[in-house]
Write a structure and sequence with these properties.
Layout: E1 11-13, H1 26-34, E2 39-46, E3 52-54, H2 75-78, H3 99-109, E4 112-117, H4 124-139, E5 150-154, H5 157-166, E6 172-176, H6 183-189, E7 194-198, H7 204-212, E8 216-220, H8 225-234, E9 238-241
Helix pairs in contact: 3-4, 4-5
Length: about 250
């Protein structure tokens, strides 16, 4: 994979619109879009019957009115959950969306999407394969285009390997919550175009290390202007943020 192309703009809204709307719902995407954001990150996992849908946690309790492990439930059950009422009364009844619904939304609006692969524990590679297959079908020939605004990321190398098997044309990024031994070798083996690191891990040496490897560096979760300015001065090329009402992404200002 040629690493010259980069599919995302600088500013990326975390889980849709961060805290302003219920995360990982279409309502969150619309809230972010209304504030000028044109790129979005979301978490995708599989239902028990293999439907890719948006949810961050392995379990349902925090962001829905369901109980138990999300990946143990069929989509017919998951689709009836309330994924908005936990946030505020105005979003009560907001359903969890499928990856297909989100793909149609971003495609019709010309938005970019960072799909974080969030497997149910024990299903890492299979989840990556299924999500890669789904994105290849949803984006069609556009998924192979040099300017396709789509990126896979995951903390789990096995999931990125799965996506590489079924959608090798879609760029990949390794997520890092620590600089664990061998992470760069793993990213190289997966032909990653980037790493996405927790913002307090990032310094000039890390940026230089990735640049020498021909990779870019993104950061999460950047919610303060001074943090954004520091990262931009170091050469970070992507800022994933909850503070969609605090930054001006269209003007690329912090």
């Amino acid at each position: 994979m040629a690493h010259a192309h980069w599919p995302l703009p600088l500013w990326i809204a975390h889980r849709g619109a961060g805290k302003l709307a219920p995360e990982n719902t279409l309502a969150a995407f619309r809230a972010g879009a209304a504030l000028g954001w044109r790129a979005f990150e979301c978490d995708v996992k599989l239902s028990a019957d293999g439907v890719p849908f948006l949810l961050h946690d392995a379990t349902l309790e925090r962001t829905t009115d369901g109980r138990g492990t999300a990946g143990d439930r069929p989509w017919s059950e998951l689709s009836r959950l309330d994924a908005g009422g936990w946030h505020s009364r105005g979003y009560a009844g907001e359903p969890p969306p499928t990856l297909e619904a989100v793909a149609r939304y971003v495609q019709r609006n010309g938005f970019a999407l960072n799909v974080e692969i969030k497997p149910t524990p024990g299903l890492e590679q299979g989840t990556g394969e299924a999500i890669g297959r789904a994105c290849a079908a949803l984006w069609g020939e556009a998924a192979a285009a040099a300017d396709a605004p789509l990126l896979f990321s995951s903390f789990r190398p096995e999931s990125l390997l799965g996506a590489q098997v079924t959608a090798p044309q879609v760029p990949r990024a390794l997520l890092l919550d620590s600089l664990w031994p061998g992470w760069l070798d793993v990213a190289r083996r997966l032909d990653c175009v980037a790493a996405v690191a927790r913002h307090d891990l990032i310094d000039a040496a890390l940026v230089a290390q990735l640049q020498a490897a021909g990779m870019r560096l993104l950061s999460y979760t950047v919610n303060e202007a001074d943090v954004a300015r520091r990262l931009l001065s170091l050469g970070v090329c992507g800022l994933i943020s909850d503070a969609v009402d605090g930054f001006a992404p269209a003007r690329a200002t912090a």
